[in-house]
């Protein structure tokens, strides 16, 4: 499995404000770059915190780029939500129309919620007791031919992926604003590392919109 994490942060490293409302940190050129990234993967992943905050549809991508890079018959990327307790609303945009939506969940999810989400078309993958065991869940996606993932956030999920050693590449757009706030989500939240910090190697720097894109590989 190949895992690329992409996110947009403010100059002070925040993903959004303390109100957890979606903020347009990046501009048109960066959204177009993300659409190309989406076109190059088999699946787009977010945590349920992002679904509850932003209600993304995860459908938009650069179709022409997908055909060019992956061939005329390549399917669009599937949508994947890490949601330990099946908190995704049945009316969420990520479940509406379009490609398959996988819900990665855990044994802790109430069975009736799991059922309700299955009833509206979600493919549920149960892995882990309290939280989603991301390694196991990704292994099950691989069994379905999903081999390259783009993770778009949020901070809790991104931290867990680094903690589990599952990230191969990290791309960050750093925008020209300060959001501030000790409770505002950052690129990697969770408990944080106190030692054995994951190390990155700089693979690219590009000025874009009113900010900069940094590309890193994980050592
Ligand atoms: N600027 C950007 O590029 C983006 C910003 N965001 C922002 O991020 C915020 C949401 O981020 P978070 O609250 O951190 O939520 P999140 O999107 O990281 O979801 C966290 C949830 O995922 C579930 N989960 C399941 N298994 C997990 C595991 N093993 N480890 C961690 N989580 C697991 C849990 O239910 C947990 O509460 C919103 O404010 C949203 O606007 C989100 C995506 C992109
Ligand atoms: N790349 C990027 N730049 C920003 O400034 C953002 N606020 C976000 N947010 C994420 O974009 C996704 C929206 O998905 P859809 O367009 O609804 O498919 C979602 O993951 C947001 O959290 N991203």
UniProtKB/TrEMBL annotation:
Q: Which family does it belong to?
A: Belongs to the HTP reductase family.
State the protein's name.
2,5-diamino-6-(ribosylamino)-4(3H)-pyrimidinone 5'-phosphate reductase
Pathway assignment reads:
Cofactor biosynthesis; riboflavin biosynthesis
| UniProt KW keywords | NADP, Oxidoreductase, Riboflavin biosynthesis
Q: Which reaction does it catalyse?
A: 2,5-diamino-6-(1-D-ribitylamino)pyrimidin-4(3H)-one 5'-phosphate + NADP(+) = 2,5-diamino-6-(1-D-ribosylamino)pyrimidin-4(3H)-one 5'-phosphate + NADPH + H(+); 2,5-diamino-6-(1-D-ribitylamino)pyrimidin-4(3H)-one 5'-phosphate + NAD(+) = 2,5-diamino-6-(1-D-ribosylamino)pyrimidin-4(3H)-one 5'-phosphate + NADH + H(+)
Please tell me whether the keyword Ion transport is annotated for this protein.
no
- Tell me one GO biological process term: riboflavin biosynthetic process
